[in-house]
Amino acid sequence: MVRGWLGFVLGAPNVATTRTATATAFRDARILRGATDKNGRYDAAKLARLLDWTISDIAQYLGRDASTISRFGASPIHQEKLAALASLTQEVFEIMREDLRATRAWFRTPIRALDGSSPQQLILSGNFRRVSGLIEESRSGLAS
Amino acid sequence: MLTGAPLDAAVLQLPSRPRRDAYFRATRLVFASDPLGRQRPIVAQRFNLAGGARVLYLADDQVTALHEAQAFGFPASSIAIIPVQFDLRAVVDLRDPAVHKLLQTDSVELSINFRSVPAGAPPAATQILGERAAASLRIDGLLYESPARPGHFDLAVIEAALRPLGSSLVVNDPNNKLTDALP
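ok -> structure tokens follow
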């Protein structure tokens, strides 16, 4: 068993586990498609489900009332912000080797480079740019 | 910290020393084939602005480099730690009180997280300093306390000054097919 930073278990040398992990990865790779409706519009509720956020969370991100999001979550007026969040999610998903659980955990975890705030906290408090900036930085080198 | 013309004047007076050693660069494994980051985007970092000076960030040892990478919170991501040999001619030690005095700054200001600066506010003092140091072409390195691992330090290499000062960076790891040099 390989133990990664912060004690995360990265994988076990077991064929069945590997096969399951591969299947999960293939399933997860299609997940962002699951965040869109039949017209290809991002749907707030589906994106919230993907990230394991509540409707209230995604409503806060969109600056709307939760009841509005429940009824009109794929409205054109939300598309720009939902696309930005979906794109960020996809990038984190790739960094996390297409592991949805790790992706969700990253959004919830206090990050030292963000002064101990979690990406989710920052996004919900209107600081999306700080989180996307951190992901951009990771393409340039990892120095805090 | 000073700004504008007084900062430019102070930068020219900063005490610097040659420094030759091997430090470490942390990068996501997917980018390891570009060990000195020639193709990297210039995003805002501690001593540079987005689209500004090319500054390469190194850590004093492998563990510090890992701590730096860990600060991004990517536990399940593969990271490469690349040894970089450097031969620099003018490194300013930002831990030096004499440097603080010349720049009219302190360790608190120098350790502020540039990511915390609100949108629309002026850049962090360290970013302004890095950009002015790069413009001077007289400083090729800034040594500073590692934000991720107290007691250790990082080196910000100012690439624009390498050629004018006759400085260099080398990665020479043929076993892993990693070979590159700057300038």
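The interface with chain B takes residues 4-6, 8, 10, 95-97, 99, 102, 105-106, 109-115, 129-130, 133-134, 136-144 of chain A (CB under 8 Å).
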